[in-house]
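Narrative of accomplishments. A recurring question from our advisory board has been how the design workflow behaves on a single, concrete structure rather than in aggregate. To address it, we present the structure tokens for one chain from the evaluation set, followed by the sequence designed for it. No filtering or post-editing was applied between the two.
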């Protein structure tokens, strides 16, 4: 997303990516490969990440270096970690609501970052939208807003608002059934 390869001794801190990332090997929302002796710290990714072979992750693809306080948005990216990486807990999944709840993610410096927030949430009926302002670096200026479509999956009067993907054709439903990597997401048959 931001860096393909961090060489030994390189450092990246206080950065984020909101754009879709795709590639082959060593693909990450922030960095593809982090070499031993390098450090990635206090970063987040809110976009989808995909790769065709090995070492694909929400924050980094493969790391031999140090990764601290880095997050990826599980509403968009299901890449929990990277096979073969020695940093199994370094990239943590977080939802949009958790990322934008008015406080900064763990390890982020308040003197550097503005916290994310929720804007214009109604949550009425079964379908709704919520607008969020993402955490941003103070010197960078305006906080980016994203809108998330939500559906109330609750039953018996309980509420359970979650992001979802609409399934509107038989072909989409068949394709979903054939792709087990997408079975842990939320869907609404429209």
């Amino acid at each position: 997303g931001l860096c393909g390869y961090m060489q030994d001794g390189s450092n990246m801190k206080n950065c984020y990516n909101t754009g879709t990332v795709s590639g082959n090997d060593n693909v990450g929302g922030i960095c593809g490969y982090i070499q031993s002796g390098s450090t990635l710290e206090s970063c987040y990714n809110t976009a989808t990440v995909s790769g065709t072979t090995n070492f694909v992750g929400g924050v980094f693809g493969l790391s031999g270096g140090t990764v601290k306080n880095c997050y990826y948005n599980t509403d968009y990216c299901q890449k929990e970690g990277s096979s073969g990486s020695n940093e199994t807990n370094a990239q943590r999944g977080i939802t949009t609501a958790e990322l934008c709840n008015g406080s900064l993610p763990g390890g982020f410096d308040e003197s550097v970052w503005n916290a994310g927030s929720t804007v214009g949430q109604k949550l009425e009926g079964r379908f709704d939208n919520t607008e969020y302002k993402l955490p941003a670096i103070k010197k960078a200026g305006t906080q980016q807003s994203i809108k998330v479509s939500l559906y109330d999956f609750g039953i018996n009067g309980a509420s359970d608002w979650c992001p979802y993907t609409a399934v509107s054709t038989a072909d989409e439903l068949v394709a979903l059934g054939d792709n087990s990597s997408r079975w842990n997401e939320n869907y609404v048959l429209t």
